[in-house]
Amino acid sequence: MVTRRTTKTGSRRALLTAIGASALGAVAGCLGGSGNEDSVEVLSAGSLARTFEDHLGPAFEADTGISIHGEYYGTNAVMRMVTDRTKHPDVIVSADATLLRDRLYPEFTDWDVEFAANSLGIGYNADTEFGQRLDAGEPWYELARGTDDGDLAISDPELDPLGYRAIQAFKLAAGEHGLDGFREAMADRVYEEPEEPQLLAGVETGSRVGSVVYRNMAVDHDLPFFEFPAAYNFAAPERAEAYAEATYTFEDGETIEGRPILYNLTVNPEADNLEGGQRLGQYIVDHPEILEAAGLTVGEAFPRANGEVPEAIAL
Q: Which residue range is the domain that position 100 belongs to?
């Protein structure tokens, strides 16, 4: 049983400010604009922390001599840091393509490139009773309803698309499996982790039985992954209309619909290392095998451009 939980009632705006000020979740650097041509400053969705640090970063540096200095947060926090100019990255990466466009167009950018997809499910500890029963084929939702408060974790939905997608998945699962009150019960029971890169830390140690995560995050941590059915794993573009039936309303009153998981990037037009940022963007779209090795889904659907992509990035 886990005792550490976040409050459901207090506003998280202060937390957003604190994160921006103290760089919680940062893996390297402080994105204040170094102007160093030998490095690229990346502000990215936290679910790609290992993708950049363990996969893309080393390969990009080996091939170009340019290092990646990254900071990783929930995508809502990433967008807030850009719009309030707390951070000044060269490259901005989102786990929700629409969110980037809604928050950054047209003042901060007017283009982006979708480069990968993902799926939603549970990364779990196979040594726990929950994990053993899940492996035995028991329905995940029945097991989830039997967990103690805080045993399952989600990312904070106020800060991160992964968090509000978890809540939306609970809603869609309730309809799919006839589970009255499932969304509300789970939203009240789960622990909300404000630092997305830390979402699986408790699962690894066994202090939590599982977390609702993207597939690549479980791959990164070498944890078993139970993928949700297509009806609510947000991995099927053809189900976009059905996904949109599940919504999440932020504390400020904004409501967001469920939609397929799509990663996109843009390069800050005022980047200190504009050329380096564009080279990284090109490198990402040119090396789908690196993304796939990190647990993402690429395939023939990517890359996809939105807006007027600079000539320096050829798709």
A: 13-118+261-307
